[in-house]
Design a protein that fits this description.
Elements lengths: L2 E6 L5 H10 L7 E7 L3 E7 L17 E7 L14 E3 L5 E9 L2 H10 L9 H16 L6 H14 L2 E9 L3 E6 L8 E4 L5 E4 L2 H6 L4 E4 L4 E6 L4 E5 L7 E2 L1 H6 L5 E2 L2 E2 H18 L6 E4 L5 H11 L7 E3 L12 H11 E3 L1 H4 L3 E6 L6 H12 L4 E6 L21 H4 L2 H8 L3 E4 L2 H9 L7 E2 L1 H4 L8 H17 L4
Parallel strand pairs: 14-23, 17-20, 20-21, 21-22
Antiparallel strand pairs: 1-4, 1-10, 2-3, 2-4, 5-6, 6-7, 7-8, 8-12, 9-10, 9-11, 12-13, 15-16, 18-19
Helix pairs in contact: 2-3, 3-4, 7-8, 7-14, 9-11
The structure holds iron/sulfur cluster.
The site of iron/sulfur cluster has 11 residues, from helix 15.
Length: 480
C-alpha cells in the first residue's frame, strides 16, 4: 500500500505536491519520491517521511506538472533504488508512480528481459512504467493522442494482473491517471478553481489543496489532462468493482471519501454491526476504549449501541510510526509499548472492552491486553472491527505470508487465550460487507484476505513466489 499524487497546473506544482503528499503520509513512511517536468525530469527521492524531499525548498523541482509517491514496501527491498516514481527517456519521456501490486511481476519481467529491456530495481512501478512506455510507443507511431493513450492502457490492462492505481507524466503532453479494471486501489481526482488538476490516492490530499470538484477515477478508466489543462476521460473496461475493503477498516484516513463512501461513516457502521456481536456474548463492560487511532470511530458507535461509556484510555505517542506498517516484526513489537500509554484512572478496577481494527499475528493485541491489565483492568474484552485474517494480500498490503496469520492455525478460542483476553469478539465477514454496503449498495469489494476470494487470477505458484520474496526481504532487514 502506498500513496500517490499527480498535479498539472499553469504554475509551479512542487509546493502543491509537498502539501498533498504530506496529507497521505499515513499510506507509507518507508520512502518518498517526487518528479517534476519542465522540459526535463527533476527527481528527488529520500528514505523516510515526505517532508525530507522538500527540506531544501522547491527551486530544484521546477515545472507545472509533477508526480510524487510515499512508499509502503511490498515487492522489493527497502533501498532507495526501489523508491517511486520512476522515469524513462526512451522511446520518449515518461514518469510513473502507482499504488498497488503487480501479481504477474516475475512473468512480465522475464518477458521484458527477452526483449533486452533492463529493470534497475525490484519495484513493480518500474515494470509498469516499462509496459506503459512500450504500449504508448506501439500505439502512437504517428503522434500521441488521447485515443492512442486509451489503446495503450487497454493493452496494459490485458497484460498486467494485479492492483494498480497509477499516475504518469507524459513528457511534453500532460498528466495521465488510470486505475486497474477492478478498481482495487483507490484513485481520486479533483480540480481547483484556477484549472489545476490533482489526482491522489485519497481525497484528503484534494481537500487540503482546496479542490472545488472532487470525484473518483472509475475502475478501468483512463484520465488525461493535457498541457493546456483540457481533460479527457474514458472508461475502457467495465467489470464489477472490487475495492479493497481493508481501506475502510484500517488504511485510509477517516476524513477521506473513497468511491463515494465516507471512511469515517464506514467505521461508525462497523462499530454498530460489531455491537450486535458483542451483545450475543452477554458481556457487561464498564467502559469501551478504542485502540488508537483507526478503531476510534467504531468504538464511539459501538459504545452508544451498547449504552456503555466510551473513554480514551490508551494514548498514542503520535511521533511513533504506525505499528502495522513497520517493515519488520522486531520493530513492530518494540513500537507497541513506545506508542501506547494507558490512562490508569479510566481503566483501574473496570471491565474494559477494547476495540481494535484487526488482528494479524496477535503480538500487538497481546501487548495491548497486557498493557490494559497492567493499568488495573478487572477484565479485558477484545472486539475487532475486522473478521479473522487468513489469506495473504497479493495486492499491496503487508500480509503476504500465510504463516503470519494467527487465525489460519488457531481457533478463535485459542487466539483469545494467546492474546490473554477474557473474551474475543470478531466482526463477521457478512456484517463487514453489509456495514459498508449500507452506505453505497452498488459497490463491490475485494475481501480476499478474509475468505481467499481473489478478484484476479492468483495461482499457488504466485503465492509461493510472493512469500519467498517477502521472506528474503525480512532477512535483509536489520534487527529481524
Ligand atoms: S486482500 Fe484484503 S488487503 Fe488485499 S486488497 Fe483485498 S481486501 Fe485489501
Amino acid at each position: 500500500m502506498c500513496g500517490f499524487v499527480g498535479i498539472i497546473s499553469a504554475t509551479e506544482v512542487a509546493p502543491l505536491l509537498s502539501y498533498a503528499l504530506m496529507a497521505i503520509q499515513h499510506r507509507g513512511q518507508d520512502a518518498a519520491g517526487v518528479i517534476t517536468y519542465d522540459g526535463r525530469f527533476h527527481v528527488k527521492k529520500s528514505p523516510g517521511l515526505a517532508v525530507s524531499l522538500f527540506s531544501d525548498g522547491y527551486e530544484h523541482l521546477p515545472g507545472s506538472v509533477g508526480i510524487a509517491h510515499t512508499r509502503y514496501p511490498t515487492i522489493g527491498g527497502g533501498g532507495i533504488e526501489d523508491a517511486q516514481p520512476f522515469f524513462t527517456t526512451t522511446p520518449f519521456g515518461l514518469a510513473l508512480a502507482h499504488n498497488g501490486n503487480i501479481v504477474n511481476y516475475e512473468e512480465l519481467k522475464t518477458e521484458l528481459s527477452l526483449r533486452r529491456r533492463v529493470l534497475n530495481s525490484e519495484c513493480d512501478a518500474e515494470l509498469l512504467l516499462a509496459i506503459l512506455s512500450e504500449e504508448i510507443d506501439r500505439n502512437s507511431k504517428e503522434c500521441f493522442s488521447f485515443d492512442s493513450l486509451c489503446e495503450a492502457v487497454q493493452s496494459l490492462f490485458k497484460r498486467v494482473n494485479g492492483s494498480y492505481s497509477a499516475v504518469a507524466i507524459i513528457a511534453g503532453e500532460g498528466l495521465c491517471v488510470f486505475r486497474d479494471p477492478l478498481g482495487i486501489k483507490p484513485a481520486s481526482l479533483g480540480k481547483r478553481s484556477d484549472g489545476t488538476y490533482i489526482a491522489a490516492s485519497e481525497t484528503v490530499a484534494l481537500d487540503i489543496l482546496g479542490c472545488e470538484k472532487i470525484g473518483d477515477v472509475a475502475p478501468g478508466e483512463v484520465v488525461f489532462v493535457d498541457r493546456n489543462l483540457n481533460i479527457f476521460r474514458k472508461r475502457l473496461i467495465e467489470k464489477p468493482h472490487r475495492l479493497c475493503i481493508f481501506e475502510f477498516i484500517y488504511f485510509a484516513r477517516p476524513d477521506s471519501v473513497m468511491d463515494g463512501i465516507s471512511v469515517y461513516e464506514a467505521r461508525l457502521r462497523l462499530g454498530e454491526y460489531l455491537a450486535e456481536q458483542v451483545k450475543r456474548f452477554k458481556l457487561r463492560p464498564d467502559v469501551v476504549i478504542p485502540v488508537p487511532d483507526t478503531a476510534r470511530a467504531a468504538a464511539v458507535s459501538l459504545s452508544s449501541s451498547l449504552g456503555v461509556p466510551h473513554r480514551e484510555g490508551l494514548i498514542k505517542n503520535r511521533y511513533i510510526g504506525r505499528t502495522f506498517i513497520m517493515p519488520s516484526e522486531a520493530k513492530r513489537r518494540e513500537s507497541v509499548r513506545m506508542k501506547l500509554n494507558p490512562i490508569r484512572r479510566e481503566i483501574e478496577g473496570k471491565k474494559v472492552l477494547l476495540v481494535d481494527d484487526s488482528i494479524v499475528r496477535g503480538n500487538t493485541s497481546r501487548a495491548i491486553v497486557e498493557l490494559t491489565r497492567s493499568a488495573g483492568a478487572k477484565e479485558v474484552f477484545f472486539a475487532v472491527t475486522a473478521p479473522p485474517l487468513r489469506h495473504p494480500c497479493v495486492y499491496g498490503i503487508d500480509m503476504q505470508t500465510r504463516s503470519e496469520f494467527i487465525a489460519r492455525q488457531k481457533t478463535e478460542e485459542e487466539i483469545r487465550r494467546i492474546i490473554g483476553a477474557d473474551a474475543l469478539i470478531y466482526q463477521k465477514l457478512d456484517d463487514l460487507v453489509a456495514a459498508i454496503k449500507s452506505l453505497r449498495p452498488t459497490i463491490g469489494f475485494c475481501t480476499a484476505c478474509f475468505n481467499g476470494d481473489y478478484p484476479t487470477p492468483v495461482s499457488e505458484a504466485v503465492l509461493k513466489q510472493i512469500e519467498a520474496q517477502r521472506q528474503r526481504y525480512q532477512l535483509q532487514l536489520p534487527g529481524t
